[in-house]
Amino acid sequence: MAREAEDMIQKVETGELVLRLSAIVVAECCWVLESFYEAHPTDISDALLKFTNAIGVETEEKLVVQQALLDFSVKKADFVDAYIAAHAKANPPRMWLRGISIINV
Fold first, then answer.
1. Helices (DSSP H) in 1-105: which residue ranges?
2. How far is it, in rounded angstroms, from Cα 49 to Cα 42?
């Protein structure tokens, strides 16, 4: 298994393969690293922020995920809560008023 992981990483580094990273995977990483391995949120955030910026890694909702990682570390928020807040800020709700205009809330 370790050899397969090495081969995959080499393919990513040479551009033969692209890894896609979703917010749910980042959330799971944060949860496992913090709860099971007792890693500090700052260390988790630092490592995952580097990973989201790595060549060959495409992070879905990259700016939202990165903001959530920062809030997870600095504000000591749970990653999922920080993600929900960052997502809401990046995608403000829109309301129809009298069926004519759209107001950002």
1. 2-13, 23-35, 41-52, 62-74, 79-90
2. 10
Nearest-5° Cα angle at 22, 79 to 70: 35
Is residue 72 a contact partner of residue 78, using CB atoms and an 8 Å limit? yes
pLDDT at 94 over 80: no
Does 96 have pLDDT greater than 90? no
Q: Which amino acid is at 52?
A: T
Q: Tell me the C-alpha distance between 34 and 78, whole Å.
A: 10
Q: What sign for the dihedral angle of Cα 69, 70, 74, 77?
A: negative
- Tell me how far the alpha carbon of residue 79 is from its chain's centroid: 9
Tens digit of each residue's pLDDT (9 = 90 or more) over 52-72? 999 999 999 999 999 999 999
CB neighbour list of residue 19: distance below 8 Å, 6 or more residues apart? 12, 56, 57, 58
Percent of residues, the chain, with pLDDT higher than 70:
90
